[in-house]
Amino acid sequence: MSTTFQLDTATSRANPTPAPMKRLTIPAIRQRKLDGVTAEPIVMLTAYTARQAQLLDAHCDLLLVGDSLGQVIYGLPSSVPVTLDMMAAHGAAVVRGSYHSAVLVDMPFGTYEASPQQAFESAARLLKDTGCAGVKLEGGAAMAETVAFLTARGIPVMGHVGLTPQAVNVLGGYNARGRSQAEADKIVADARALDDAGAFGIVVEGVVEPIAIAVTKAVKCPTIGIGASAQCDGQVLVTEDMLGMFERVPRFVKRYEAIAETISGAAERYAAEVRARSFPGVEQTYQPR
Ligand code: KIV
User: Fold this and answer.
1) Strands, E assignment, the chain
2) What is the pLDDT of residues 213-226, one digit of tens each?
3) Which of the listed residues 65, 236, 249 should we mutate to test ligand 1's pocket, taking the one with most ligand atoms within 8 A of CB?
4) What would the pLDDT profile of 38-92 be if each residue is shown by its tens digit?
5) How many CB atoms lie within 10 A of CB 242?
6) At what angle do helices 116-130 and 144-152 cross, to 10 degrees?
7) For the segment 128-180, what is each residue's pLDDT rounded down to a tens digit?
């Protein structure tokens, strides 16, 4: 797809701001899966900055402002300390940098779990401050009431089951989930509960392939896999992982570039050129009058 957009200067009350092109909508993405069949897989990548969004936008259906920005951008040890302010600032930047993909913003830990009302206040702030199309939250059946509450009040919600990184302190790490039958059954039941509650999509992270397939068959809405299965209805990756920004990445990640070497190599050449400069002698230095 070309990254040159055609500017549509027509305005209306529904579209008061001229935009290069029409953005994908959440209902259009939800409709990709009909009667259990997804005609066109859903392409999703994380984005945290305006420039990154500009580069990814034309190639994606969904840009996720993931709370993984805690580790990727801020060097935090997990996504637990990420705040609503951080998500709002990065969400607004990604919306500014995109015209085509629908933008989703992650609800950070501690801003939605207490009650549907708390979730509504946090999600409404994200929609108002960023212009994003919807939010994503982690958790299964325990979040179903919240998903129904938000959806009924105009906020599209994507669920997230399997490995849920915000629960790292309960899970004890980032290992794949669903290794016992009971755990596998719970993941499928969690996904069903979110689907019934009105989630327009569900991220399925870090589960063995048969569970991802079972979830994808069990729910009406599209599933988006990460470390799950190519048989999900779509795929998401952390962009920096697939670009090769880090030396170590989860085993399932395919690296499409070696961006860390590119950046470090460029910095090395720049530093060498600066250090090789010959400085002017004392007699040539500037003397104020
Ligand atoms: O925070 C994030 O980037 C995510 C994706 C990995 C799905 O939740």
Assistant:
1) 33-34, 37-38, 42-46, 62-65, 102-106, 134-136, 157-162, 201-205, 223-226, 234-237
2) 999 999 999 999 99
3) 236
4) 989 999 999 999 999 999 999 999 999 999 999 999 999 999 999 999 999 999 9
5) 17
6) 50
7) 999 999 999 999 999 999 999 999 999 999 999 999 999 999 999 999 999 99
Q: How far is the CA of 284 from the centre of ligand 1 (A)?
A: 56
Contact 155, 134 (CB under 8 A): yes
Cβ-contact 142, 169 below 8 angstroms: no
- Can you give the C-alpha Rg of the chain in angstroms? 22
Catalytic residue among 138, 205, 209, 273: 205
3-state secondary structure (DSSP) of residue 233? coil
Token duo for residue 283: 């007699």
Measured CA to CA, the distance from residue 118 to residue 151 in angstroms comes to 14
